[in-house]
Write a structure and sequence with these properties.
12 strands, alpha+beta, 14 helices, four-stranded mixed sheet
Amino acid sequence: FSETGVKQVLRDLLIPWWNAYSFFVTYANVDGFEEEEVVHPYSPNVLDRWILSSMETLIQDVTDAMDRYDLQKSVRPLVNFVEDLTNWYIRRSRRRFWKSQNDDDKLHAYRTLRYVLVQLSKVAAPFTPFISETIYGNLRGKKDPISVHLCDFPKPAAAARSESLEKSMALVQTVVRLGRQLRIENDLKVRQPLGKLHIVSANPELRAALAGFDDLITDELNIKQIVQGSDETALADVSVKADFRALGPRFGKNMKTAASEIAALSVERAALLASGGTVRLTIAGEETEITSADVTIQRTPKAGMVVGAEDGIIVALETALTPELEQEGLARELVSRVQNLRKEADFEVTQRIEIILDTDKAVRAAAEHHIEYILSETICRKLTFGKTDTAPADLNGHACSVEVRKFT
């Protein structure tokens, strides 16, 4: 590897992987989670089942690439898996580890993450021998070999895979990525709840694959409701233009005629092309078939909507804010402010705190209305209103002084 390559591996694989391991160790120590053996979890939680299936896919992909002596393709699946592990599985599971009671779901989360980290150590050992040995040595079971380099390389278990679940989660991630992109492009703050997210696809298989994941998507994108459909014209006006590069070789001197015919397509036929369908046109006396690959698709969102699309999925956010949504947005901004103060004070992640607020009526009303959410998210045991020793900061246009103390 070049110096640039080494830095990239550190950034994309080793540091995120170590952070995932540190996350597990921190919370396992706090909760006193300690089981003698590493067990293959059988969890009803969809995130657990997905990451376990993804682990089996990883083992298969790395095995296939190594059998072909293809080092580059052996490492890439590891990077992709660690990305999913840290930025999706752990991030989406954080609240499961934060719960104060040791319920079954929390136990499933601990067992799943431990198992995955140990299996990952075995798969990565030929490429990263030292970090693999360190993580394995601390998390291995009592009856496991003393070193990761004495373990057999894992064999992929086809029965433990769920390709349909992996495809569904990939679609969920696509919807979330599009939703985040729309928020960024249209200056819609992530912490500001929005009313509705529309998910549209002309493909019934895609719509079916997304069924059952509404809670995950709404929580990830901070949306109150999801509406699924098959007609994107309810969200945006669709028009198409001929792609001269794609159609030029086919139509030659008749290209301008073809472009005019395509531009004149009805709204319904343009929408059909945009959804991946085909239309038939007669150009210079000859009938020809036009597909979505032959045109450039333009979408003009309806009033109050912002729209994005990728691979047959169209998503649209409704941007109108009600007073209730604005109030919840204030509460979420307050939680973010408190979490930053916790970090600045270098509090332990499990440190219970007390919050004192000095603010206006609007922020106070938001805090009082969403008190349970604020206490839960910040591990706070007491929230009071009064004078503080901190300077006021802007909270969505409201002056707000926040003081955070250790709770005793």
